[in-house]
Write a structure and sequence with these properties.
Elements: H1 6-16, E1 20-24, H2 28-39, E2 44-48, H3 51-60, E3 65-69, H4 77-87, E4 93-97, H5 103-109, E5 113-116
Parallel strand pairs: 1-2, 1-3, 3-4, 4-5
Helix pairs in contact: 3-4
Length: 121
């Protein structure tokens, strides 16, 4: 094992930073609380409040996981889900919803998982 040089510190910091999460929810309180919890675990979180912004952010950068609310302004959550899946069929997307009747639809659509609001952190 060799000693770590100054240039290795940057690599170590990058290695300790987990993947990029796109958090899409129209409720600022939900976005903030989820982001705080995820960032405390060293995840890089990008927050957006509508579907159109979510699609733009997905195309701009490295996103490893999407947490997607279904009740969104501008572009609906299911429309965003379909577009994201078409853009990257291997992108894990977790649906966040307050509607319990979405489980079967989410499973049939290929969602990675579904979380029901209110969320318990």
């Amino acid at each position: 094992m060799r000693p770590m040089s100054t240039s290795d510190n940057t690599s170590l910091e990058t290695a300790n930073q987990r993947g990029g999460i796109l958090l899409v929810d129209d409720d600022p309180a939900v976005r903030e609380s989820l982001a705080l919890a995820l960032e405390s675990e060293a995840y890089n979180v990008t927050m957006v409040g509508n579907g159109a912004e979510a699609l733009r952010r997905l195309q701009e950068g490295q996103i490893d996981l999407v947490l997607l609310d279904l009740n969104l302004p501008v572009t609906s959550g299911w429309d965003v889900f379909e577009r994201m899946t078409a853009f990257n069929p291997f992108l894990p997307i977790i649906i966040i919803t307050a509607r319990a009747d979405q489980y079967e639809i989410a499973a049939a659509a290929g969602a990675t998982a579904i979380m029901e609001k209110p969320l318990s952190l």
